[in-house]
Amino acid sequence: MPDVQALVNDFSNKLRKRKIEGSQATAKQAAEVLRSVISQQRVPYTNQAGALVDAIKAVGEQLIAANPIELAVGNIVRRVLHIIREEDLSLATAAVAGLNLSAVSDDEDDGDRDDYPVLSAAAVAAAARSTLRPPSLQTLLEDMPDSAAVPRTSSSGGDSEGKSKSADKSSRSRKLKHDVIEAVNELIQDISICHEQIAEQAVEHIHQNEVILTLGSSRTVLEFLCAAKEKKRSFKVFVAEGAPRYQGHLLVKDLVARGLQTTLITDSAVFAMISRVNMVIVGAHAVMANGGVIAPVGLNMVALAAQKHAVPFVVLAGSHKLCPLYPHNPEVLLNELRSPSELLDFGEFSDCLDFGSGSGSPLLHVVNPTFDYVPPKLVSLFITDTGGHNPSYMYRLIADYYSADDLVVQRRPASRN
Hints:
Elements: H1 4-16, H2 23-40, H3 48-66, H4 71-107, E1 118-119, H5 121-130, H6 137-141, E2 149-150, H7 158-192, H8 194-199, H9 202-205, E3 211-215, H10 219-230, E4 236-240, H11 248-257, E5 261-265, H12 270-273, E6 279-282, E7 286-287, E8 293-296, H13 299-308, E9 313-316, H14 330-333, H15 350-353, E10 371-374, E11 381-384, E12 387-389, H16 394-399
Parallel strand pairs: 3-4, 3-6, 4-5, 6-9, 9-11
Antiparallel strand pairs: 1-2, 7-8, 8-10, 11-12
Helix pairs in contact: 1-2, 1-3, 2-3, 2-4, 2-7, 3-4, 4-5, 4-7
């Protein structure tokens, strides 16, 4: 196995130098690095989950600090922390359920055992996992499965009880890391196939002879549109070029290669064309806890135009893009300014960039933001790999993936006078 610290440092350098583009690639590599950390982490006999949590937090802080704007890294770190807590709680409740089974079977006679149904370890673990979620109407409606009751088996006395306790301890020590790594492997698999899972829902949202508008380039949008084309849907696509990086040119080439009827337009033509559009389908950089979207620059303009003409604005996002944080001043704190060279050549405006006589500042400022913030009131629907959701439901969906212990900011207690 390679050195874990070397992997962490290499991934941090890539994040710092912006050598990794795209939330999916970033999230997948972050999960793979954290999996290596877990596999090589030596855990004590007691408080194994605490040791894994501390190790992941230490590595996660280093990765997040390397590129705070790439929110997918923090999302994966919190997902892994939630997995550790969930697996540890499952093993603990399963062990308690097993001890209760053996204890009751020793104390009661065969005739009295049928009067007290016992919950299975899986059912107890499922009930314990539900306590990690905030209370909601859905949790009130959920009920224990009918298969929760299991028949009790006879035991052979105190020796079996002692053996079961020691076996439970040893099994927990062996199973925790194994279960966590298996869960992280499932997370990596989900990240890899999120495009296919989102694309499977295309036929439900794109209908015959519709006109779809998008901006820039997104692999999720590409697979979504192509999936509808494969289902014999005939529709047209308008692609805004997404200046200044002109990523829309790449999407147009891919769509034409797949046989879709595509029209390339400038960003300034979006408002003029939006009245002919049936739906706007775009990708996202991150989805915040309030339902707001951090998206490529220019999409806020498209969302405002869609709202003006009552056109549905649909956002495609994998579950690894769901961020449990609330946006505070997102235009500044969650944004990044790119090089002015994407907007103009240095030689043509070199005189304007010179410092004025005695002014102490340049005469020309070039602002080239990377992202836009689209508020939740402009979003009609989110389509994730788990289905379609309204913006008001995103906080509930996010609560299923993250633990509240990883979201609370520790504050110093107020001084007493």
